[in-house]
Amino acid sequence: MEMWFYEKHIPGAGICLKIKKTLYSKKSKYQEVQILETEEFGRMLVIDGMVMTTERDEFIYHEMLVHVPIFTHPNPENILVIGGGDGGTVRELVEHRDIKKITMVEIDKDVIDASKKFLPGLSGQLNNPRFKLIIGDGIKYVKSSTGKFDVIILDSSDPVGPAKELFSRDFFKNVYRCLKPDGILVAQTETPFMDKEVIKKTYKILKKIFPLVKLYFAPIPTYPSGMWSFAFASKKYDPLVNFDIERAMDKKFPTKYYNEDVHRGAFMLPEFMKRLVR
C-alpha cells in the first residue's frame, strides 16, 4: 500500500509527497515531531504536520539564512541562533572560520535528538567546539540575555504554537537590545504568496525598531508556494552597499546555491513583493 504525506497550506492548495517509511515519530512536550523517508526529497523533518526541511532542498534555505548576513557584517564573531534544531544553520555558520562563538537556543530537545540520529548531513556540526547549545525558550533568552551579538538568526518554525511569539514586537525589541551597535538580524518570514499578512505585520514591526529593513527571497520547492522570504534588519549595514563581495567570492568552502550574484539578486524584488513592505 502506498503512503502519502499531505500538508494543506491554504484551503485550496497544499503539497503531497510519497513516503517510503516513517523513521521517527514522537509527541514531544511542545509539538509532534516526525522524520519521514520520502521518495523524491530524501529524509524530511515534519513538525505538527508541516514540512520543516528535506535533505534534497534544505541547502537553499540554510545558505540564504546564514551567508547573506555573514558576508554583509565586516566582523561577525559572536552569533546567536534561535531555533534551528535540525542543525543546518549551525553547519553553515561553522564554515566561516572568523566566527568565534555560535550559541543556539532551541526549545525542543527532541528535534535535536531526532536530527542527530536521522539527519546527520544537517546536524553534523552540533558538536563543534565553537558551538554552544542551550535547551530553552528563545523568547525568554533574549529577554534576559546580557550578551551582545554581531548577528542573530531567527531559524524558527511557522508562527504557530511555541513559535508564535517569535514574531511579536516585544521579541524583536529584545533582539535589538541583544545586538551590538552594528548588529544584524535575519529571520525567515514565510511565503509572499500565502502569508502576506504575516510579512506585512512583521515588516511593520521591524521598521519601527531597526533603521534598515529589507526583504529578500529564495525558491524552496517543499515550502508553501515554493517561494520563501527572509527579513534583513540591521542597525548599520546594508546588504547591498556593505556586502563584502571579495570575501564572498574568495570563500574557502563550497556552496550549492549561494554566490555573490544570488546575494545581490535576492534583494531585487518583483513588484508584488515590494508592495508588501512598501
From TrEMBL:
Residues 2-235 form the PABS domain. S-methyl-5'-thioadenosine binds at Q31, E106, D137, G138, P162. One of its GO terms (molecular function) is spermidine synthase activity. The active site is at D155 (proton acceptor). Spermidine binds at H62, D86, D155, S156, S157, D158. Keywords: Polyamine biosynthesis, Spermidine biosynthesis, Transferase. GO terms for cellular component: cytosol. Pathway: Amine and polyamine biosynthesis; spermidine biosynthesis; spermidine from putrescine: step 1/1. Coiled coil: none annotated. It catalyses: S-adenosyl 3-(methylsulfanyl)propylamine + putrescine = S-methyl-5'-thioadenosine + spermidine + H(+). The keyword Protease does not apply. The keyword 4Fe-4S does not apply. Belongs to the spermidine/spermine synthase family. Catalyzes the irreversible transfer of a propylamine group from the amino donor S-adenosylmethioninamine (decarboxy-AdoMet) to putrescine (1,4-diaminobutane) to yield spermidine. Homodimer or homotetramer. This is Polyamine aminopropyltransferase. The gene is speE.
